[in-house]
Amino acid sequence: MECPKCKKGTLVKAREDIIVEGVKLAEGLKVEKCDRCGEVVLTMEQASKLRGAAEEAGIWGHGIRLKRKVSRIGKKSALYIPVDVERMLGLKHGREVEIRVVGKRMVVEAVE
Prior knowledge:
Structural class: alpha+beta
Number of helices: 2
Shape: elongated
Distance between the termini: 48 Å
Number of strands: 7
Number of domains: 2
Strand content: 35-45%
Strand order of the largest sheet: 1-2-3
Helix content: 10-25%
């Protein structure tokens, strides 16, 4: 089958590790890969499962990206959350959050 990207290569069966933003979402996934440009073609089912894994890892749908400096409160490090982000997520002072480390990322989620 012809490569949908370069139109010059042929899709061949391959196994690929799928890594997004430093997070391994799948290891040795059976895919079709262009022998010329390296484009990886997934089935709809594979794409759906990878999207679910990316959502679970907190790396899907980055609507807002902000840079903040780490502050110091006493002997502890702190990050300040902008008021509009607090409102979007329904965070209030004293609300419990869960902190996870995913690859080299820190994911903070409000506990339901």
